[in-house]
Amino acid sequence: MPRFEGFVPGRFPLDAIGAGGFRFAEMSHKGSIIATPIGIRIWPVTRFSEVTIESLQPVLDEAGTIDFLLIGTGADIAFIPPALRDPLKQAGIAVEGMATGAAARTYNVLVGEDRRVAAALIAVD
């Protein structure tokens, strides 16, 4: 299976998660990802405490094509603080945090429904 090298254009469901990474578009990647309507990219975040509005810039850059952002917070659920929630809301994007597995499954359902969704997913084992 080819490795993911930074960005793959297109909208893809996630085929598998776990073992510290993700499988999608017949590729695999170890580490966290951001999936938006224009593609999937590496996200250099390893734990929820590293999530900043700057790290979510790819989502803000595509705000006109995204209604909803799922943040996969790792193995556990974490509260999305106002410092993240408010700028996204101002850009017209609702945000929900949930454990990465649940976020990935929800992302797949919403992509299957052709919804305007993005996901920022912290890799889990």
Q: Separation of termini?
A: 19 Å
Mean pLDDT: 94
Structural class: alpha+beta
What characterizes the major β-sheet? 6 strands, mixed
The string of secondary-structure elements, in order, is EEEEEEHEHEHE
Give the neighbour order of strands across the main sheet. 1-6-5-9-7-8
Which strand-content bin applies to the residues?
25-35%
Question: Which overall shape is indicated by the principal axes computed on the Cα atoms?
Answer: globular
| Total of helices | 3
Helix residue percentage: 10-25%
Low-confidence stretches: none
Brief write-up:
With 125 residues, this protein is an alpha+beta fold.
Structure write-up:
This protein is α+β, with helices and mostly antiparallel strands. It is 22% helix and 33% strand. The chain has three helices and nine strands. It has helices at residues 57-61, 82-90, 100-112; strands spanning 7-9, 14-18, 21-24, 27-30, 32-36, 39-43, 68-72, 94-98, 117-121. The strands form two sheets. Strands 1-6-5-9-7-8 form a six-stranded mixed sheet, with helices on both faces. The chain has a three-stranded antiparallel sheet with strand order 2-3-4, covered by helices on one side. β7 (68-72), α2 (82-90) and β8 form a beta-alpha-beta unit. The longest helix has 13 residues, at 100-112. The radius of gyration is 13 Å and the shape is globular. The mean pLDDT is 94.
